[in-house]
Sequence to fold (970 residues):
Amino acid sequence: MSQTNDEVEKENGGRFGQGFPPESIAIVGISRNGRSKVPGYDGLRLFQGLRDYGYAGRLYPVNPKADEILGEKAYASVVDIPERLDLAIVTVPAPAVPRVIDDCAAAGVRYVHVCSSGFGETGLAEGLRLEEELREKALKGGVRIIGPNCMGFNVPSKRITTFPDIGVLPEGGVGLISQSGGHARLFMMNAASMGLGLSAAISYGNGLMLDAVDFIEYLAEDDRTQVICVYLEGIRDGRRLAETVRRIVPKKPVIIWKGGLTDAGSRAAASHTGSMAGSEAIWRAFYRQTGAVRVDTLEEMAEAAMAFQMLRPLPGARAAVMTMGGGSTVQSGDLCGRANLAVPRFSPETQKEIPKFVSSVNQGLSNPMDVPGVLMDPIAFTRLLRVVAQDPNIDVLLVGLPVEAALGGFGQTTQALVDFNRESPHGKQVAAAITDNWGPHEIEKQCREAREMGVPLFPTFTGACLALNRVAGYYRFLGRRDIRA
Amino acid sequence: MSQTNDEVEKENGGRFGQGFPPESIAIVGISRNGRSKVPGYDGLRLFQGLRDYGYAGRLYPVNPKADEILGEKAYASVVDIPERLDLAIVTVPAPAVPRVIDDCAAAGVRYVHVCSSGFGETGLAEGLRLEEELREKALKGGVRIIGPNCMGFNVPSKRITTFPDIGVLPEGGVGLISQSGGHARLFMMNAASMGLGLSAAISYGNGLMLDAVDFIEYLAEDDRTQVICVYLEGIRDGRRLAETVRRIVPKKPVIIWKGGLTDAGSRAAASHTGSMAGSEAIWRAFYRQTGAVRVDTLEEMAEAAMAFQMLRPLPGARAAVMTMGGGSTVQSGDLCGRANLAVPRFSPETQKEIPKFVSSVNQGLSNPMDVPGVLMDPIAFTRLLRVVAQDPNIDVLLVGLPVEAALGGFGQTTQALVDFNRESPHGKQVAAAITDNWGPHEIEKQCREAREMGVPLFPTFTGACLALNRVAGYYRFLGRRDIRA
Fold:
């Protein structure tokens, strides 16, 4: 049965957000030597990681056997800490977690982030029983649990992180909610090279009390967040998610990657976070009805976020494609076709204009265009971009560049793209993609530089097609919504 | 109307192969200063490239205005060269090519490789007329044309290349036929890092006389070639291609990437090589009926070739998937599902055996498996591989490794895979893939090392799923064929 947000919030002890990001944190389950009993989690590393990140709030180590840890006074229990805490991070083994929840309730701790695994996700009776015990104690004690089985969060603007190995991330407009800490971590590790800055990244593991909807609501209200990215495995209350997302979409794009939509993937989701994955058909209807942007991989999610951050609204997804080499042009056309990015014929005016400065030998004059000579000549290239920009059949320009050119730095070709986007003739914008980026290449630096200069350069052509289509689809959805309203 | 191979060969002057690779080559259109009139082609660079490659045959520069070029005596025309040539490479502008064909006919040159563009691919009346003139002159004069609008070939074992900028390629069992010289070049540039050695790579541009079928026939008879890769845009005689491929498939796999199967792609194919692309439905029937292995990108082609080279026949494509991290396991399952690689449940025996040495906390015991601890422990990992190998539900093992592990070198994990494939318990084989290889990474070296040790390590997980499925599909096709025969 579906609940209203008010009902859920009342049940869970209020809306998520007050006291987050936390200004005071206790770490429960912190050893003096960094040897944690729980594989993968280590309070000492989390403590050190928060310090290294430059966390400006108050940090309290909790260890009944220590007097001090890393020069900080240690407490036997959260109840001994002389302030009401925003957050306790718990890394003790699963069977010891219920007692920590009792302590947190007694101490009036707002949020308890349970890193520890060994709960519902095991599928075992003992894990399920422990999880139910956590819920009961938390509800009774007015404590809100993040997790369990959860890697936590990262808020660059507040210098707070529970991912100690990632380092400082650039601040920005992308908010990430992920049921998987591993995916959150990977997204963060690649965010900088994708040109993405983060407002917050929050993983929530089993989502026992606070789950995706609560965190999505939080990012919807957060002024720093311009684009919301969500990785889901399962969801407790599908109708509540749909209603929330539908409400937020007109304000900001909500990009959702739903894992476990195949048989094998859904079996894995069940044992990862104890999630019921739901069928492809149900989720297709969800996307159609809410206007959430569908992606199917982490890379697609990052590329869609990058496109939303870098492009103004697109009126449609009819692309003019310009690339180098016959085979590459055929491939570009096919990749557009498979990603449902339209590559229409040029208008008669454009067709008349182009031959005036593009030779017909080895140069395709139709769309997609094979224009190697033009791409190497900034004056001709700028002219071509402007001619194509005035074509009423075209919504967006997409330039395919070979990886060899990328590795050499694009030079004046990039400058032509930069200038075009700065001026945006006829309101048009241009994106670029590496056409042949397979096999390992070292183009990270080049990609980043192009993005810093305002050119959304994608590491793959398929990624660019999909991302552009998604941006256009979002605004198409908004348009239809306005007409209906 | 379809022709038999005999009819076509008679018309084109005999089967392709005699005199190839050529033992004597003239280069027609070679300047003294390397400044060619035809953009993109340069006889001097081709000449120098053949020398640098270590070509052991006889090389003749043809330039009526020079006495010698790079220390080699220059001839005014091919008719002046004092031997019957296997090959003339022509880089003069399109309008001058017919006269060169006349000269080659007079001199009894076997093959003429026409690099020059400006023929049928332009779609212009003049180009089409010139192309028809070439055909008539060649047929009358008993000369066979490769091209026009063609970048040529590379035969590492004979040190012969018309791709002067690629360098020496490793010899091996992969033969490539490509209508696009650009794709051939890109394939060759990535072949070494994909662990592929080449028997020959041949591009044929507009395919005026000799086309894909002739070259496929050649590779079918070539003992060095174990796997045939083909990139096609269009084909003159579909029935002849189908009959030829159907005949070859039982001997060696024929991997075909058909470009231009979408609207935009087929428009580009028309202006690239003047090809009629054909519909998706026709080509789907072609693949089904011939047993050709379908791929849809260059990367997929290289990965399928790598899988065919490294794996023995697979009886099926039911995979046991082992990876690290919950989210990554869900994703692996979904990628398998989308690539139609089956991930069946383990047999009851396997399910009973695994918990004996794999802990249930944070470790999925179903397929796909989330076994981070096991993958880091070579003894447990070896044991897991062996337990899974005896499962009758499993045809092949697939290990997903995070890029971080790859960048660090896999160490003992790789050794466990190497040992497994060396011994191949119960006839099973293992492959590996990077699960999170997005964003640019520098793992080329690691991938190559794993392959050199006998582990088919794919740069992407999707690529691995697709490639394994293709290998299995090929052998499934062979099995069905044997039953029908």
Summary: Residues 227 and 253 of chain A are 5 Å apart (CA to CA).
